[in-house]
Request: fold
Amino acid sequence: MTLHKAIKHPICFFLLVFNSAIIAQNDEYNVDETYFFTPELILGKTLEANTFFPKTDLQKNLFLSIGNYNYNPEKEWAARLNYPTTGIIFGYTDFGNTDKVGKAYSVMPFMEFSILKSVFSEDLNLNIGIGGSYMDTQYDEQTNPFNRAITTKLNWSFRSFLYYSILKKKRTDWRVGLGYLHHSNGHTRLPNQGLNSIAASISARFENPKETTEFKKPEFSSTSQTYFSSRIGIGQNVLSEKFNTKKEVYSFSASAGKIINNTFKFGGGFYYRFYEHYYDYIKNNEVLVEEQYPHFADNPYGYATNFGLFATSELLIDHFGFEFDLGLNIYKPFYKIDWKLNQGYTYQNANDVTIEVLGELDWYYEIKRTVSARMGLKYYLWSTNMAPKHNIFIGAHINANLGQADFTELSLGYVYRCSLKSKK
Reply:
């Protein structure tokens, strides 16, 4: 797969790396005796994504989870998180209308935590997964105009489930669950309303006997490290339904902060982005530039850029990082046009003339222009469990304006750690 094709399909590229790393880590930590697999039946309801969305019957899902328990004295992150389970989920989804909404085939890395342990023992667990999916049915203006949820074959997938154990035996744990599932393409093609579902499940976790009764939890001292990091990224998005071809978004960021107990990473920094769609719209002197923002043409490159500040948090798990950033856009002038194009609508008047109404720059526009967000996965070349002084990572992220996807990104970055300090 070439770099350009990898950028076009960052989800597939990243999951390929993830699968390879899972196998490598099994060898490294010898977890062959602590694995489990969980077949799961999930029934639910596909929520309407838009007005006149196709009617759906009962949603049906079949999922298979494969994972391990992470009882290993060398895994500090596992001890800090009270030994969660980790693994990968393979899923099949029938959304309840195979002709208009279709089916999904998903692959998602997951992590599961025991919650309210003092009340429920280990019976109540939270399972979170994020990955990719292949959808066999998409929006089509002529043949499927009312399914505005999904427009691409490859999409991001997310799931969050609460599980409660109802019957435990030596090798089997029967559980019921309640949760939420989401699929969308990260703004790489419009329309992209996304598919959201609520569902209930029954599952059985089959495991070999865990010899954990003799496992002595290691004691780790409290530590902190200062870090410095930078990354470059290339992403893709579309501007609007009228300008619906994918173009690149180039980005750079630098940050610094603290790594606490070799597991929790907190920091802040700045980012810079350049949007090809914004630049081309200005250079081509499109309608809104010509009529409302003619001064943009004096500096197309400058008005197509965006920079701001962000706070970052990351959970470090061996070779992986689960990251969430919250940012403040200091400069994003073209978003006025972006908003007007995407929040507007068209209609036919009495003379059968198409009228276009632009979105208004209201209070909600101000919030979305100001707040940025970023969420995704990283893969580190060297395990973070060893606290290496130098590390390199690749990442796959969704970038958003507040909660609405802006672009999907593949990034390459570097992290430098200062000396480790123990806390008294």
